[in-house]
Amino acid sequence: MDTYRDRWQTGQYKGVTFLTDDHAAQDGRRLAVHEFPGRDDPVVEDLGAKAPEYRVNAYFIGEQYDQAAQTFSGLLREPGADWLIHPWLGRVWVRPLTWSRTENNREQGTCTLAIQFAPGGDEPPQPETQPDDAALSAATDWMGVAASDFDLLVMGTDAVNTFVTEVQGNLEYLRQGLSLAQLPLTWASQVLGAVGSIQTELGSLIALPGRYAGAVTSLLNTIGIGGAASGLPDTARPRLVSRLAAASMRAHETSQGRIGSESPVSVFASSGAPVQDVVARENIKRDAALRAQSYLAAALQLSVYPYPSQAERTFNLNAIQTAYDGLLQGLPDAAFQAAVTARAALFTAVLAQDLRPPQSRDIANPLPATVLAHRFEVDEGSFIANNGVRHPLFVSGRVYG
Asked: Which residues pair with 84 in a beta bridge?
């Protein structure tokens, strides 16, 4: 459990950090108290909240303290509001109101700026979330919901052995499938190492279902998000997306009770052995449900990248949509909502990419750029920039829309 010391922060304003040892904050309400002759009880009129004020003593020390203080004073003089990282109160949207600088010969090498901050006024700017980031975040959240819903029934020795054998088989097929994929060496080593770690610690992980679910989703997050950071070529993504989507469908069949339906020929299939123990069978179904969601969420993450063609984008989306339609059946409410959100975020991100082939024309007789831009149905400024037009009134040669 964190304490107030853990919540302390280093003071900062407009990117410049400062030291401080005390502060004062003033707040209240604007009350007008009316006292009338011959009346004991006053009439109090509430005019609303009072604007809060914040006083911070920022001090600078060292051989260059004077220059640091001067630079900070210059930032305070700049108009407009900004975020203040208040050491005690956190992020506060403020404007500098007044400040004074104090230094003396007794304490050389240090000075203090006593700053009075007022509220910033207008709403602070909200960071704009990019569609690609939103899609990756939604898929990651879906994995988190799937992991939080995961639990296992208490198993006896025989059931544990059956369950471990089944999970080991699934991990081995996953490992083989990744080994056959064209993955960057460093990333492949990291992913295969994570698979091996789960296989080694499986006995202790299943004793704590939350840890096991966290290990599985962490592995699939490494596969889904790690592709961009590891240099995974875009040409290898469709194959990996389709494999993960197919694995999700097969795992979903197992989660619905059709154990043994996963073909042992596929590198993503389970062992396919018939399971007689009721508890082991139920836990295998729960594990398959976790894998089905995690596989498809990883496929969604891998599908977020700049597509070279409409055909490749359609291929990925069709593979995901096919698995998605079957997976939605029987999902808990929280997982269902997370899956819907993740799919919508993915489609928003990738369908925003304009993959229409560029148009081109050969202009024999010079024409104005505005005319050509109108014919191509593009903005004139973009047309001029894309074609490197030197004279907007006389454009000739091959031009592109």
From this structure: 13, 92
Domain ranges of the chain: 4-119, 131-351, 360-400
* pLDDT band of 190, cuts 50, 70, 90: confident
Burial of 199 (0-12, 13-18, 19+ CB in 10 A): middle
Structure tokens given for 76:
């305070």
Q: Does domain 4-119 fall into CATH 2.40.30.200?
A: yes
**Spatial separation of the C-alpha atoms in residues 370 and 245, rounded to whole Å:** 47
Using a 10 angstrom Cβ sphere, with 0-12 exposed, 13-18 middle and 19 or more buried, the burial of residue 43 is exposed
For residues 56 and 36, what is the distance between their CA atoms, to the nearest angstrom?
Answer: 40
Radius of gyration of the chain measured on its C-alpha atoms: 31
Cβ contact 69:60 at 8 Å = yes
Question: pLDDT-derived band of residue 198, with 50, 70 and 90 as boundaries?
Answer: confident
Question: How many C-beta atoms lie closer than 10 Å to residue 16's C-beta?
Answer: 15
pTM of this structure:
0.62
Neighbours of 76 (CB within 10 A): 18
Kindly state the DSSP code that residue 350 receives in the 8-state scheme.
Answer: H
Q: Taking Cα atoms as reference points, which of 366, 368, 357, 322 lies closest to residue 343?
A: 322
Burial class (CB in 10 A: 0-12, 13-18, 19+), 333: exposed
Task: Select from 175, 336, 373, 174 the least CA-distant residue to 262.
Answer: 174
d(CA 219, CA 34): 68
Query: How far is Cα 384 from Cα 368, in angstroms, rounded to an integer?
Result: 10
Taking the C-alpha atoms of residue 304 and residue 228, their distance in angstroms, rounded to an integer, is 9
Q: What is the longest distance spanned by two Cα atoms in the chain?
A: 98
3-state SS string over 117-167? EEECCCCCCCCCCCHHHHHHHHHHHHHHHHHHHCCCCCCCHHHHHHHHHHH
Residue whose entry in the numeric block shows the structure tokens 């596989």 = 295
Q: What is the pLDDT of residue 229?
A: 59
For the CA atoms of 263, 264, 269, 270, what is the dihedral angle to 10 degrees? 110
H or E stretch including 289? Answer: helix 278-302
